[in-house]
Amino acid sequence: MKLSERLQLIADEINKGETMADIGTDHGFLPLYLLETGKCPHVVMADISSGSLKKAEDNCRALHPEREYDLRLGNGIDVLQDGEVDVVVIAGMGGLLIADILEWNLAKSRSIKRYILQPRNHVGRLRHWLADNGFLITKESLVREGKFICEILTVNSGFPQSKEAAPYSAAFDYPDSLLTFRNHLTKEYLERKLEIEEKIYKNISAHSKSVETETISCRERINRLEHLLEKLYDENHGAEASL
């Protein structure tokens, strides 16, 4: 089975021998690949939609009818026992929904060692929620999927909460870690986001002063992106000069 670039990157974040659960599995391509390649000895395919889970089941039967599969219908990680698997993948959902899934039963969420999260939107809000609830982002990756560039977060759980996270700000939308874990898509990603934020700023500014708070927040995001792009330029040219 050949995966898309997005799913392949997620698969690469899983270590050989780990057990995993795919929450919102849909067609089940990722867990099926992990079984086929022998990377994971056991996978759980879970979805809240019976129709989506049926698609996964159909693919299981078509590819390897002789195997037994662990398919579970249910909401989020409710389908799992505490600490049942090593890694949970939640991909292709909104960042706020992912945070809601993890917050529903924090004790259970913290019993899972690692998560690989791929939010479709609100990644900054998700980063802030993770920081505020004892989850540590250990890696950030960018990958192309069609016309989109997706963010993938590798997250460890179980960290004690010594204090609340810093207030939500543009630093959560566009953190320094985007440069720490930069790849060939980083510059394009930052430039795309800057173009979007500048359009938003222009539209907000054209309206009344009642949106002043939104204007300030958008300006902060623009400043943050400009800072990261300038830093990326300096680091790239510094590296070239040292060759």
TrEMBL record:
CDD domains: AdoMet_MTases
Protein's recorded name: SAM-dependent methyltransferase
SUPFAM superfamilies noted in UniProt: S-adenosyl-L-methionine-dependent methyltransferases
PANTHER family: TRNA (ADENINE(22)-N(1))-METHYLTRANSFERASE
Domain of life: Bacteria
UniProt-recorded Gene Ontology molecular function terms: tRNA (adenine(22)-N1)-methyltransferase activity
Gene Ontology biological-process annotations: methylation
One Pfam family of this chain: Methyltransf_18
Keywords recorded for this protein, A-Z: Methyltransferase, Transferase
